[in-house]
Amino acid sequence: MSILSAAGVEFELTLPVVIIGAGAAGLVAALALREAGQEVLVLERDPVPRGSTALSAGLIPAPATRWQQAAGEADSPALFAADILAKAGGEPDPALVEALAARIGPVLEWLADRHGLDFSVITDFRYPGHSACRMHGLPSRSGEELVDRLREAAEAAGVEILCEAQVTALYADAGGRIHGLAYRRPDGSEERLGCDALILACNGYGGNPALVAEHVPQLSGALYFGHAGNQGDALLWGQALGAATRHLSGHQGHGSVAHPIGILISWATMTQGGIQVNLEGSRFADESHGYSEAAALVLRQPEGIAWSLFDERIAGIARQFEDFRQAEAAGVVLTAPDIAALAAATKLPEAALAATLAEVERLKREGATDGFGRDFAGVAPLVPPYRAVRVTGALFHTQGGLVVDASARVLRPDGAALPNLYAAGGAACGVSGSRAEGYLSGNGLLTAVALGHAAGEAAGRA
Q1: Hey, what domains does the chain have and what are their CATH numbers?
Q2: The FAD-dependent oxidoreductase 2 FAD-binding domain covers which part of the protein (predicted)?
Q3: How far apart, in whole angstroms, are the C-alpha atoms of residue 252 and residue 422?
Q4: What is the DSSP string of 109-177?
Q5: What are φ and ψ of residue 30, in 5° steps?
Q6: Residue 202 in contact with residue 428, Cβ under 8 Å?
């Protein structure tokens, strides 16, 4: 992943804009460029566009949308921005947060009206830290559907997507202007391509064990549930060009990945009244907090394992997600008519499990707060038959990266923009701050879609 001198290099073909990466960020950027009448090429290392987007639940947070208004859900960009900053302890750049919160709603409506993406808003539960129901998704509630629909829209709009093309080097001059790139095809052949502007939409560094060990040591060696192609290319190129970086320890973890099958179990199983216990049958955290910070907490338990416990009412809410339906079909969501059967099915100590469940139900009856800080006021009791899933913690994707402005321009440490380089999604420093608990649900796709659109719009103007 090198930066080579552009001096004396000839390119057979030079395009106005090239995008590296065909996930949500790259495809939305390409759609914005086509809207501006620009010719654009997207280079994707995989045989088909998937990336981190396909591994997500495909949910995008957005305020003041027509879907919210139809559901009677009051929200505003200012409220959304305040929620982001509160979750991240005020660490993110407020100007970037406000810009993304203002942009994302209109972008979703544009994707619906212009490109036929059938969004709707989830109204039967709120994700931790959100003051309103603002998570929008496609009918299957899956990231695979989201990336497939974006790819179809891009192809229909005339975007050229070249798959199995792994970018190996960028060509730049002494001033940091990108003149082109080299990419490798599956047969080992390399080609050079010139460009007037470059958008980095190739995500972060979660798939690079050395970079994870350096920047996110608490999850070094943990299950990586992101895309293997997230090798930190954008970060390394940007650093070599003199770009500023920020919050490289920031990341999204998840404390509820079915183990060993590796299927995401919705955190709605916790926020709607479920609990997690370790192999000793004891709770170990406030489950109403976010799933990101739960990853490290689960991994600190014996064998790095927990059991997520809930009931049929909660399972009914979780079934709107394709991942949960797949988990049920695979047989990893266990069912038990009573506590004795639950203990037998999970191989948890029955006495400890019974005591834990009894204490939780007492807290719910009394509307009390437990020693971890979880407020059980108004939380519905768990009613047999019980449901249980064996889970572990995992790293999903990194949230730190190249510092960008509201137009997705990559910035130097002094705040000046590099001449023609843009970054979106995991390639850019997001709005989650430096800690796992700073991640507000949906921040990953927020920066993918909103910054992708900003990058395409800005590169189209430039």
Answers
A1: 2-250+399-460 (3.50.50.60), 251-395 (3.90.700.10)
A2: 17-434
A3: 22
A4: HHHHHHH----EE--S---TT-SS--EEE-TT--HHHHHHHHHHHHHHTT-EEE-S-EEEEEEE-TT--
A5: -65, -40
A6: no
Q: Which two tokens stand for residue 90?
A: 């005020």
- Burial pattern 429-457, b for ≥16 Cβ within 10 A else e, equals bbbbbbbbbbbbbbbbbbbbbbbbbbbbb
